[in-house]
Design a protein that fits this description.
Shape: globular
Number of domains: 1
Strand content: 25-35%
Number of helices: 1
Helix content: under 10%
Strand order of the largest sheet: 3-4-5
Structural class: mainly beta
Distance between the termini: 43 Å
Radius of gyration: 15 Å
Low-confidence stretches: 74-78
Length: about 80
């Protein structure tokens, strides 16, 4: 399965993009490092597709525009 770097456009097998980490153990998305420019890419483990990390975070109920894990409505934020 080939993936493409969001930053430099390098395309190659997912195996050549170093696995960095997965934020959530129950999530199928992980950070992978481009072998050419060393940029971090948010890639689906199952399909090899890229996703927008910001949009992905906002899909979880604990996210707000102040950052992950902050309940702006419960902590006095805007």
């Amino acid at each position: 399965m080939n993936v493409k770097c969001d930053k430099c456009g390098h395309e190659g097998p997912k195996e050549t993009f170093s696995y960095l980490y997965n934020i959530r153990l129950d999530d199928g998305m992980s950070w992978h490092e481009c072998p050419k420019c060393h940029a971090m890419n948010w890639i689906s483990e199952a399909t090899g597709e890229h996703s927008d990390f910001g949009a992905h975070c906002k899909s979880f109920p604990f996210h707000s525009d102040k950052g992950i894990g902050i309940h702006s409505d419960k902590q006095g934020g805007a």
